[in-house]
Amino acid sequence: MASIRLENVSKYVCKKVNLKINDQELIVLLGPNGAGKTTLLNIIAGLIDYEGSVFFNGEKVDHLPPQQRRVGYLFQELNLFPHLTVEDNIAYGLRARNHSSEEIKKRMDELTKIMKLEAIVHYYPKELSGGEKQRVALARALANYPQILLLDEPMNSLDYQTSKHLRTEFRMMQRRLGITTIYVTHNFYETEEMADRIVVLNGGKVEQIGSYQEIFFHPKEAVNNFIGSPNILKCAAYRELGLGLAEVRCGDISLLVFGEGKRISEIVILPEDIYLSNSRPPGPDINRIKGRLVKIEELSSSMVYCTVNTREVSLKVKLSKEVFDSMRPKVDDEVWLILAPRKLKFITENNS
Amino acid sequence: MKKNKIFHLPGEIIPLLIFFSLWETLGRADLLPWKILFPPFSQVLTEFWYLTTSGILGPNLISSFIRVVIGFSLGSFSGLLMGIIMGWNEVINKTLNPIISLLYPIPALGWLPLFMLWFGIGEILPILVIFICSFFPVLYNTFAGIRNVDKNYIYVARTLGASNIKIIYTIILPLALPYIFTGLKLEAGMAWRVIVAAEMVAIPTGIGALMMKAESLLRIDIIIVCLIVLGIMCLSLEKIFVFLEDRLTSRWR
C-alpha cells in the first residue's frame, strides 16, 4: 500500500494544500460543500491538472496518468456503467489491464464473496438497490488491487440504517486489507466510527487535522461553525452506577451517560441533539433539565437557535422553525431540555 | 404477450381494410370523370403481380436497394467515425465544426447537378447523394451522443486503467447508442426518399426511373405499385433499426 503526501497543491478553490497521509490510514476529509474535497481527490487520482506535487510512498507521481496511479476511486454518483452487468462492471478494470481470464475469475469470486454480490452478478445497475449499487461500485474500485482508495461521499444517497451498516462493513474491510483510504464527507456523524484522523477542509484550506475526539471537543473557530458549535460541559463529579451507566455532574445539572468505566472529564452534545419542551416532559426525571430561555436567534428561514440557562450551565439548542412555531416560547420562559444519553459524547481523563 | 398480439392485429388491419375498400369502390365508380387516372386497388394488385413475375420490378428494386445500402452504409459509417473523433477531440471539433455547419444545411439533392458534372451520370451519383444525406445526421447524432456521456464514466474508466481507445469502444459508444440510432432511424427512411429523386432526375434504372417511365406512359397503376413498394422499403429499414436498438439497449436502459 502507500503513503500519500501533498505538497503545495493548488487547483480551483484549493490553495497550496499540504497534507501527509500515512500508509494504511483511513483519513476522513470533512468539509462543507465547495470546500475543495472532490478537487483534492481528483488531484490525487490524476484526473485533473494541478500545481504542486503529489507523492505516493515518497515518489513523485505528477507525471503519471490516472491509469498508472493504481488508485481506486468511488465517485459520489457511483457511476456504475449502466450498459454492463454487475459482473462486467467489477471486471472492467481487470479486463482493461489485460489480466488473464483465470485471474479475472479468481478475483471476481473473491470480490463477489467479500461484498456479498454472488446472487446479483448478472443484474444490470438499474435493477439494483442503493446499497447493492454501493457494494458493486466498491468492488469495482477494489478489483485492480489499488494502493490507495478514494471515496467521495459514497453514502450520500442512502438511508441512515443502510449507510451506517455499510460504513461499519467498509471500516472492517479497510482494516483487513490495510489499504490507505481517503473518505470524503460533509456529514460529521459519518466520521465518528471510521476515521483514524479527520482533516477538516474549508474554502480550499486545511483548517484542522486530528482525531474525532480532538475535532469534536476542541474545534477551531472555522471548524466550530461547520460542525455546529457543540455544547461542551466540564464535569465536576463522576459516579459509576453499574451496568455501564455513570452519573456525571456538570455545574448544577447531573446527567446519566453510558460510561466506559473511565472518569469522564468533558461532555459534548450538539445543539440539534437536545430536545426542547415548554412543558414538563413525561417519563422519568433522567437527563431532563429545567432552565430559562434567555436568547432566541433565527439561523435561517427554517432553523432557530435557543439559548437556555440553568443557574450554572448554558446550553444551545437548535430546532426547526416548525417545532419552534408550534411551541412559541418567549425569552424568560421556563423550559425543559432532554439530552438523550446516546447522543452525549465524552472525553475520559485518559484520552483528553 | 400472445393476448396482446391477437387484439393488436385487427386494430391495425381494420383501418387498412376500410382504406382499400374505399379506394376500390371509388376506382370502380363511373361517377368520377378522372376514372382513367384513378385505377382501383385490384388493378394495382394485378399490376404488382405482373411486374413481379415478369422481372421488371425485381431488378429495378435491387438496383435501388444496392445503391441505398452502399451509400447509407458508407455515409453512416463515416458519419459515425467523424462524430466519434469530433466528440472526443476538442481541437478537431473546433477545426471542423464551422465547415460542417456550413455544409450540413445544404439539401442532399442540391448536390446533384454538381455531382453530375463532376462524376458524370453513373452508379456513383446516387450513392454519393445518399452518402451525403446519411453522413451529416449520423455525425451530428453521434457527436451529441458522445458529448452527452457523463464525464464521470470516463474518469471511472481511466482510474480503472482503461486506455482512450478502450474507453471509446467499451463505454462511450455503447452509451451513445440511443443517440446514434436516432440518427440511423431518421436517415434510413430519408435514403429511400433521396434515391427515388436521384433516379428520377438522372439514372435510367431503379424504382425512381421505373416511375418516370410509367409517368410518360400514363401508367398510374405502375406508379402506385412503386409508391407502395417504396413505402414498405422505408418502413422495413426503419423497423430494422428499431429492432436493433431494442436488442442492444433495452436491457440496460
Largest interface: A-B, 28 and 21 residues
Number of helices of chain B: 10
Largest sheet properties of chain B: none
The fraction of residues assigned to DSSP E strands of chain B is under 5%
Global geometry of chain A: elongated
Report the portion of residues of chain A in β strands: 25-35%
Report the major sheet of chain A.
6 strands, mixed
Helical amount of chain B: over 70%
Instruction: Round the Cα radius of gyration of chain A to an integer and report it.
Output: 24 Å
Distance between the termini of chain A: 31 Å
Low-confidence runs of at least 5 consecutive residues of chain A: none
Ends distance of chain B = 21 Å
Quaternary state, please?
A: heterodimer
Helical residue percent band of chain A: 25-40%
Mean pLDDT of chain B: 89
- Overall mean pLDDT of chain A stands at 89
Q: What is the H-and-E element order of chain A?
A: EEEHEEEHHHEHEHEEHHEEEEEEEEEHEE
- The total of beta strands of chain A comes to 21
Which superfamily, in CATH terms, is the homologous superfamily of chain B?
MetI-like
Number of helices of chain A: 9
Task: Describe the protein.
The mean pLDDT of chain A is 89. In chain A, 26% of the residues lie in helices and 35% in strands. Chain A has 352 residues and is α+β, with helices and mostly antiparallel strands. Chain B is built from ten helices and no strands. The mean pLDDT of chain B is 89. Chain B has a single domain, classed as MetI-like fold, CATH 1.10.3720. Chain B is mainly alpha-helical and 253 residues long. Classes of the chains: A alpha+beta (352), B mainly alpha (253). The interface between A and B is medium-sized, with 28 and 21 residues.
